[in-house]
Amino acid sequence: MVYVGTFSKTLLPGLRLGFAVVPPTLRSAVRSARAAADGHGPVATEAALARFMDEGLLARHIRRTSKVYAERRSAVLSGLTGPLAPYLEPVPSAAGLHVCALPRPEAGSAVAATADAVAARARAAGVAVGTLRTYQASSGGPAGLVLGYGAIDAADVPAGLELLAAAFRSVTPR
Q: Are 60 and 53 a contacting pair, CB within 8 Å?
């Protein structure tokens, strides 16, 4: 088994450092592939990250941010059972800094057809929300919204979700 990951999500996207945990039988092949691809990574950045990890600061950072993101996620999910309940239901997920939500079946095509309009209206009100359509490789996928919570304080989530619900009310038939 090979495990590949990145520090972009746990630390910062601009870091552009990743890692691979490989069994001893594959190490030589992986080293050769790395050398053929780009030789080596940024030595000073890798050394600083190694020290950060050795001193236990990465583990401390992950423990702290996990609590912060769990609180934010909980606030978003609460909004999907509150003001957004008539319109959206969350897609089950255990990873990422976002919640995807699909139109409720009882809301029908009215909500699905207005995902772009709702997102635009929400953005105009100061709520950054994306549509699933922007992540689809081809047309015909499900309509829905992507509610990110990586850059918002948990205390601000309810007000943002109220504005999003108002955007739904303004563009969907009554």
A: no
pTM: 0.77
Q: Which residue has the tokens 């490989």?
A: 22
Residue 130 sits at φ, ψ, to 5 deg, of -110, 170
- Nearest in space to 4 (alpha carbons), one of 24, 28, 21, 27: 21
How does strand 3-6 pair with strand 88-90? unpaired
Range(s) within the chain of domains with CATH label 3.90.1150.10: 69-171
Q: CATH classification of 69-171, choosing from 3.40.50.300, 3.30.1490.190, 3.30.565.10, 3.90.1150.10?
A: 3.90.1150.10
68-114 confidence digits (pLDDT tens): 999 999 999 999 999 999 999 999 988 888 999 998 877 655 555 68
